[in-house]
Write a structure and sequence with these properties.
Elements (H helix, E strand, L loop, with lengths): L5 E5 L2 E5 L6 H7 L9 H9 L14 H7 L4 H15 L3 H25 L2 H5 L6 E6 L2 E6 L8 E5 L7 E13 L1 H4 L5 E2 L18 E2 L4 E13 L5 H10 L7 H30 L4 H15 L4 H18 L2 E3 L3 H5 L5 E5 H5 L5 E6 L5 E5 L4 E5 L12 H12 L4 E3 L2 E3 L2 H12 L10 E6 L7 E8 L2 E8 L1 H4 L3 E4 L6 H13 L3 E8 L5 E10 L6 H10 L3 E5 L4 H10 L8 E4 H4 L4 H5 L5 E5 L3 H13 L4 E5 L5 H6 L2 E5 L4 H5 L3 E3 L4 H41 L8 H11 L1 H7 L23 H25 L4 H25 L7 H4 L5 H19 L1 H7 L6 H11 L1 H15 L1
Parallel strand pairs: 11-23, 11-26, 20-22, 23-25, 24-25, 26-27, 27-28
Antiparallel strand pairs: 1-2, 3-4, 3-5, 5-9, 6-7, 6-8, 6-9, 10-28, 12-22, 13-14, 15-16, 17-18, 18-19, 19-21, 21-22
Helix pairs in contact: 3-5, 4-5, 4-9, 4-10, 9-10, 9-25, 10-26, 11-25, 14-15, 18-25, 25-27, 25-28, 27-31, 28-29, 29-31, 29-33, 29-34, 31-32
Length: 881
Amino acid sequence: MQDSDLHVVHIGEERDIKPHAQEIDDVIYALNSNLDGLTANEAARRIAEGQKNKIEEKEKESLVKKYFEKFTEPLILLLLASAVISLLIGQYDDALSIILAVIIVSTVAFVQEYRSEKAVEALHSFVAQSSQVLRDGRVRDIKAEELVSGDIVILNRGDRVPADIRLTETIDLRVDESILTGESEAVKKHHARIDKQDAPIADRKNMIFMGTIIAQGKGKGIVVSIGDETELGKISHMIQNTEDHKTPLQVKMDQLGKHLTMASFAIIAIIFIFGFFQGNPLLEMFNVGVSLAVAAIPEGLPIVVTVTLALGVTRMAKRHAIVRKLPAVEALGSVSVICVDKTGTLTQNKMTVSKLFTTTHIEARVSNLEGRIEFLNESGVRFDPKHDSHLQKLLKIGIYCNNAHYSFDHQLGNPTEVALLSCAFQGGLDDLRKNGKRLDEIPFDSEKKWMAVRYDGEEGTKYYVKGALEVILPKCKFFYDNNQNPLETKEACNKLANAGLRVLALAYGEDLNSLTFVGLVGIHDPPRFGVKESVLKTRDSGVRLVMLTGDSKDTAISIATELGMYDRDSIALSADDIENLSEAQLANKLDKVAVFYRMSPSLKMKIVQSFRIRGDIVAMTGDGVNDAPALKASDIGIAMGKGSDVCKEASEIILVDNNFATIAAAMEDGKGIFSNIQNFLRFQLSTSLAALSMIAYCTLHGNHLPLNPMQILWINIIMDGPPAQSLGVEPVSKDAMKQPPRNPETPVITRKMITKILQGATIMVFGTLFVFFNALEDGVEEQRYATTIAFTTFVMFQMFNALNCRSTSQSVMTIGFLSNNYFLMAIGGSIVMQLLVIYIPWLNYAFETVPLSLGDLFYTVLIASSVFFVDELLKFLKIQH
């Protein structure tokens, strides 16, 4: 039994029945109440027993504790170890820069996590502050949090519902339930029992729920659930109990940090031990070992990752996407499934006339680009509706039988009626209601399914009627032009309904039982501009799209089909289909599902978690409170800018323009960002491996070392830094969206990448050692010359290798030498700094270098360029084959 269920005891039996499926008397009996309300003493007793109409929050963890937890992540610990080593060898500037980088990266992560925890707090804005109740048979105003189960609550237009309530009386009651269902149109309510025990929230028409708003009419009801037991309370619990997930990049960075630490220190230990047993001075081997440790640890990695993601955030902001958590930028490139909320994301959340049925089968469509209606005949040819008297008559009825107000920049009233006015006015008609007098109105009622207005206007005194075809057609004795027949009309109605349209029949006459039938109007919420193209682009990249909606099956499938998300092999599942399935059972049924309809918050969350059980990386879009649990449960929550604060706080990304097309653009950035991070790693690891290999070789063979400790640190801290970090801002490839989603199980360092690293490191090692041994002769000055030219050759190798690392597969000729200005500045700056180390006397002393001739510089460039030409040749051969 769920929290909001009632435990009703009958003579001789015991059974669980939900309040919407009970008669009013049974609900009152179960709650030990009556229609005059509780007594003040009884309410006080229930409060004393622990009943409290308040959504509780979990005890919050200390902010200080949360902040320092960020310093326990593997890569951060690795950096701190690097800082300690730098302090031991007196490199205080290096230690300070590393510590500052750690603080910046950890602080950014903390701030983002802190902001993400505001979702539950935002829920409180939906809780009513006060309420009218019957106590001791009298109406009283009390604080909403003092309500108890069994209270009788009185509700009027504009009230926010203070608890979950089973209605006992209704007068033209309509409720805005958009925070729970996501559907913007107010729901007509009644107080009769609903037979279906497991009816979804949207179908519980005799219930109203905490946080929703009375849009029209008034009513009375009995409180059946309060606080945490309400539907809003359940959402709060789902949000609080859903753990935050690390993105694939965060998981792989943690693993990489551990592996690099173990591998680096293992190699360094071997070098130190062999050097010691060969009789090398202990202090010298310690300095070399420590320098190699600093060189081996990619302390620039967290900085590059943060800067790369931050630049991605900036690019996405220009595309109307606000990123609340930096890792989410890259994670979009790994998404394999997107669960899309229909209303407002795929569609405009604006009802629009789509088709008009007359004897000439006229069709009206909305231009997504301009927001204007154009009229087309059966052949799809545009025409002026002013020239068709039948169509004019149909549009006139839509104006007369209407209570909405419309102008191009302002609309007020029922969305369906606003759509009728928009169509009529853009069809060339004026507001005819201004020129006559309304004599009477029979309002729409969900029972009778029609509305009529009696008007004295330019056509005399007439009834103008709209409603469901099955109730309008029996009232009609005539057809407007005598060319229609009931069978043809019913077939047209079925055709429109099967297309997912809401169908209205329009008629007029002097007598309600002797009307003239004029035609049908099909209305729907049209797709947003550019969404179809983005859906196809996203699907072509290997990402699966699934629609989640509170709509009916026909409407959901119609929109999904129109957007290319649903084909003949697809299936749609309802709330009833998945209600009693476990997440694991549902996971086994997801292969062909493209649409889930009539969904509730808990079911949306179940769907997301089921996809994750399958190993998918899931993005979820949403705009209502009802979407918040699923947003938080997903790997990437994407909220609409027009959505609730709860929804935004539970998400990682906010779409300011509420447009799915923005998601596709963001995914493109995500794919490019991960590629840039891999390029950076390739560059840094090939450099570190080459340096380690050279020192290891010379140590094991008892040779002079080609690089001294200061030069190793210079290569790592200064020469690696700017070129490596410039690789993180490489422009996104135009082919990024053609790549399939990245498998989250795929390591950051792939086999192909290892091959590239070994390729570059091998050439750098052989090239540098060749130059070093060729220049090495006895004597201190000659040894300094050999070290200097080897040092410079190795630095130039890095510059050419950085050029290779701009792309794994594309030639520099293809991506362009000048396409990354940051890279050009970094390479230029690094070369200038290396020349200073060679030619400035006091730097010669510090780094034990000597000036080189122009011929020497040309020689080092010639040797170092080999790493570039080999890589370009391999890329060319791969392209050709």
